[in-house]
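Before relying on records like the one below, remember that each one covers exactly one chain. Contacts with other chains, cofactors or solvent are not represented anywhere in the record.
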Amino acid sequence: MTLQERIQRAITNQRAVRFRFLTPQEQALVPQSDRIVMDGGYPEAERKRLYLNTTSEDGIVCFRIHANDRFLELRHQNILGSLMSLSISRDSIGDILPRQQVFFVTSEIADEIRQSFRQIDRVTITLEEIDGAMIQPEQEYKSLTAIVPSMRLDNVVAKMTKTSRNLVQEWILAEQIHVNHFVVTKATKQITENDIVSIRHHGRFIIDDTSSRTKKGKIVINYRKFV
């Protein structure tokens, strides 16, 4: 049964349901309904739980990791890997923010985390439960500008990555480019303001403004590259 079918069945049956964390791709498929609440535990969350016919209260727990910095560098990969080594499913884990030393999980597995999560990369850690709503992730980005003849995907990506359109078209065919979290397979796709463009090995970009034009009528793009 697909996610949409599960949601529709719960709506039809008027059941109170708490889904685990959804990816941005899955969230984009959720139907509009005043019975649905989406929450990831803090304001800028990417992965979010879906609550149907119920509130999001007590559905997510946030933990802060404490460890000796001399022996352990916290990274998304080693935090996630250590959690999943406890046989915890990926959709029970929300966002992981290494710089803030925090991660989010469903409340259903919080006790297991408290009891079993003791090491990362063989370094002993301790956990502190905190109010995730107070977390303000520090997104680092560069503000940049590019000039393109049109807002075709291949034009925009070529300028942002300083490469050729031919190479960009190869990336598109290899399904290495996502727009708003979905794979794009057509170079002619039109990019618009607020679009999020993710390129494998090149990072994530957000298109902020496309309203300016040069004297020759080309489009001036103001965008951010996350670093």
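The longest strand covers residues 203-213.
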